[in-house]
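Hey, resending since the last one bounced:
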Amino acid sequence: MQSSETIAGTETSLDIVPRDHKFLSYRALESDGKELMKKLLEFTTASHITSVNLMTCLMTITKIARCRPQFLSEVVGALESLHANLPPTLAKSQVTSVRKSLKQHLLALLPHPTAVEHRTLITTLLTDLGATAAQVQ
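The structure tokens again:
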């Protein structure tokens, strides 16, 4: 799992854990990471999530997708699902803020080299969210 970016300036990767480490299990750490990512993705579809928590979750999964392209498909799917099903508990101003945040995160994913197979969907979502042709290009 090579990282093309760093999170908060610190390289975070299982590659730095020796396979024969005395105390850390590579497989357990990998499994924990996948499980936590799954929970973050589920969190985006929670019906009673606050707008602040939702936007924080969007930022987190977008950063992870940029650093770990193997999660890109799942993240794009979660963003698409969120676009179609915003939590009903959000006020109108919160919906506007979440949509703006969603647009920013999709724009951040669009130029990523591994996003090629998702460009059509991302472009469609961005158009629905009011992105201009210049922003998409």
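The helical segments are 26-43, 51-67, 72-84, 92-109, 119-128, 133-136.

Sorry for the duplicate.
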